[in-house]
Specification:
DNA polymerase, domain 1, 6-stranded parallel β-sheet, Rossmann fold, 6 strands, about 230 residues, 2 domains, alpha/beta
Length: about 230
């Protein structure tokens, strides 16, 4: 099955543009240690916690299920510190885009297809990643950047995609969402978008049955019916 023709590609960020989740997990653990908390999220812990979208929501969920006596008032400070630590990692060059993503963006621009982002993560995380990989000026290449704190409900609700489509001025059937997780696929589908799912390190076991196509990042162009010879 091919998707298209399209006027816009809307990317998720964590796990989709880059394999960021391990850097997030490590940064969470460092933030907990900085606060003197005995919490430590293993990879298995974090895989389960990723079912909850949003970093602050993830901390709150962990506190609830673990019966933590720590006040919930600490959550914003923990999340802010985690974001600071994560950003330092990204700026330091710890992450790059997944194979094929930069080439896909370049081909989209060559074809006049708009680029956009719809993510649950915070804007500083987006800015740091894009600037570190592509340069600060590359942020202007995205016609819409919608983050979780800009909408009422985070993924799997469709809010971020609805707002991205509104800002783009594009109908959902004329765009495609690129996602790596079950929550992301549900969010995009609820907004009426076709979805290309590209399973990542932490989402490989997710249910992608609702995705239009499941492929690797390098396979997205083929899913769109693009080749280097066809404008």
């Amino acid at each position: 099955m091919l998707i298209g023709p399209i006027d816009a590609i809307i990317f998720d960020v964590d796990g989709t543009l880059a394999e960021t989740e391990e850097a997030h997990r490590i940064s969470f653990n460092e933030a907990f240690a900085d606060a003197g908390l005995p919490w430590h999220w293993t990879q298995d812990d974090y895989r389960d916690l990723l079912k909850v979208t949003g970093g602050k929501e993830r901390i709150a969920h962990f506190m609830a299920v673990s019966g933590s006596p720590v006040s919930g008032d600490l959550i914003p400070a923990l999340h802010a510190r985690k974001t600071e630590l994560y950003t330092q990692r990204v700026v330091g060059g710890a992450l790059g885009f997944r194979p094929g993503i930069e080439a896909l963006m370049g081909e989209a621009q060559r074809r006049g297809v708009a680029l956009a982002i719809a993510t649950t993560t915070s804007r500083p995380n987006v800015d740091a990643l894009v600037a570190a990989v592509l340069g600060a000026g590359a942020l202007d290449d995205f016609k819409a950047i919608v983050c979780g704190d800009m909408v009422k409900a985070k993924k799997p609700a469709p809010d971020v995609y609805n707002l991205a489509l509104e800002q783009l001025g594009v109908a959902p059937e004329r765009a495609v969402a690129i996602e790596d997780s079950w929550n992301g696929v549900r969010s995009a589908k609820a907004a009426g978008l076709p979805v290309v799912a590209t399973p990542s390190l932490y989402s490989a076991g997710d249910d992608f049955s609702e995705a239009t196509i499941v492929t690797t990042p390098e396979g997205i162009a083929a899913a769109l019916g693009w080749s280097s010879h066809t404008p």
